[in-house]
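WARN retry 2 of 3 for item q-0093 after timeout on previous attempt; input resubmitted unchanged.
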Amino acid sequence: MNLEAYKEIVATCASISTMGQMLAGTLICKDIYQKGSSQGVDPMPFLGGIGMCILMLQYALIVRDPAMINVNVFGLLTNVAYMAVYYYFTPHTKDTRTLIGKAAVFVAAFLVYAQVENPEKIEFRYGLIVTALLLLLIASPLVHLGEIIRTKNTDILPFPLIFMGTFVSFQWLLYGLIINNGFVIFQNVVGFTLSVIQLSLFAIYPSKSKKDSQRKTD
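OK item q-0093 returned
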């Protein structure tokens, strides 16, 4: 079966799904707004999303892939908006500014590298960098694994982002197979696996806040 004939269809579906995943952050922002505080919400999915979209946009420009360019421009804009909401409602503005500053320096260093690297080697070497960073971002919620097991509570995990991430990574895996890009394939094989692992935590340790709301309803 020749998957090349379905390249544009898969690219469009993957792009739309990714944008849907990025919009899932509005649910988290809604909770922040309703509580009047971002206390207890991990900013890394938003801040990491900004950094990765910038770095992945650079990679998309290197390989001249329109689908990846469009998705990462959209992702950059939405994550900036989410981070703005987080910052507005955070009780720890100084710590948040410090975190943003560190992230900015980190991203800038890789952008400078992309400009000075040998043009013949940049696609492979920069691809390795963004792949490693992307997988770290996807796996970042697992930093809280010990706390989740101890408290038997997954409230700290961003379920909408993880759920959509599982679906999206599968589509980009298919797209990577079609365009025969090893980095896209590897990113999404590992990304899909990590997302499934994180989803399984919700089945093992259901959200306590949902349980409490169900009790109140009953």
